[in-house]
Amino acid sequence: MENRVIGVRTGDKGINKDGEKKATFEPGVDLMAKVVVFGEGPKGSLLREVGKKLNLFDGKMPQVFETAIKEVIEIPATSPFYDSGETVLHTFGYPLGLDTKGGGFLYKMKDNRISLGLVVGLDYEDPTLEPYQAFLRFKKHPLIAEIIAGGKVLQQGAKTLAAGGIYTMPKLAVNGALFVGDSASMLNVQRLKGIHTGMKSGMLAAETILEAIEKDDFSADTLNAYAEKIDQSWIRPELWAARNFGQALSKKGLGKFFTLGAQFLTGGRGFKDPLPIVDDATTLEKLDGALAEAAAEDVDNTLYLDKLTGVYLSGTKHEEDQPCHLLIPDENICTGECYENYRMPCTRFCPGQVYELEQKSDGSPRLKLNPSNCLHCKTCEIKDPYHNIIWTCPEGGGGPNYSIV
Predict the structure, then answer these.
(1) Is the pTM of this model over 0.90?
(2) What CATH number does the domain located at 7-62+165-243 have?
(3) Which terminus of the chain is more exposed, N or C, with fewer CB under 10 A?
(4) pLDDT digits (tens, 9 = 90+) for 241-260
(5) Domain boundaries, the chain
(6) Among residues 178, 182, 204, which one has the least CA distance to residue 194?
């Protein structure tokens, strides 16, 4: 009998941090379904497991990601954006330079608020790079600093973007399951947009499921009509035109502009099609000697925040007495190879200060985890050079509580 998805099992609740059942213990339940639609967003934990069992990514390029740090800022009447109406600003380069993929964005919102953020491609090579500090430097660029001067951060957050596009797209249908939106790598990295493709793919998935119900057949043969609907919709040509865009941005120096120009003239093909994609976890360069820590940016915790203040403004909450949802299978790798080669880059690429480097009494390194700070961006699982961090869902839907959109 062929493997198939038959439902979803929820996690047990009421387990303390030592793995023991509390008085409030509730066992997980099995939610059975004829078809399960996976829409977990980037780097879904369920997608990770079902992908292994059903070979969803066979023959595909590795999924790759970008991390975005974003704030909602209330600006004063003195800001040049105060009465600017609808305004969109995209930036490129600063403070990442031409060798690291990424850029900034600024969107005018209602009520004299702006949405400001920096996106960093996770294929970066510099093990000392700290995306959060880069975000603070971005805010201090004269162009941005003038706009936000005198403002106040109302909310902060972070998330990853599935930036691989069509060449990293998994199988869209298997026996009993469909995959939509960012789970299926449908973000258009060229436009930095994915909500529209997520909505459209969900609509096409619903149409396919209705047809399957009429036939009483939920096999991959029937559900593959969903993949055909995707190909026949506007999703396919939009993603096809951007199929090599992320790879072009990953090129170093001025060469990326020639590659992007060639893609623009050839409908996304460029000089070579497809351009190769490399697993984000494999790109860090090993440190040659001691780590030279970059100076931290000055903060005032009103307009320029430290990490912990940002975590507070994300509304993140987790039940403290529960098992850690960040699993590290081999801590010896962290304090051994990872420390020697990279000085524990998780302490830098995490935007929520979940990972901290401490020293034991004998001077040896120790990794301290603060899972209650987790912003659920999953940068750690993606960028860890040893694939030694596994992100799982915490109990009770804990995590950020973004209330301003």
Answers:
(1) yes
(2) 3.50.50.60
(3) N
(4) 999 999 999 999 999 999 99
(5) 7-62+165-243
(6) 182
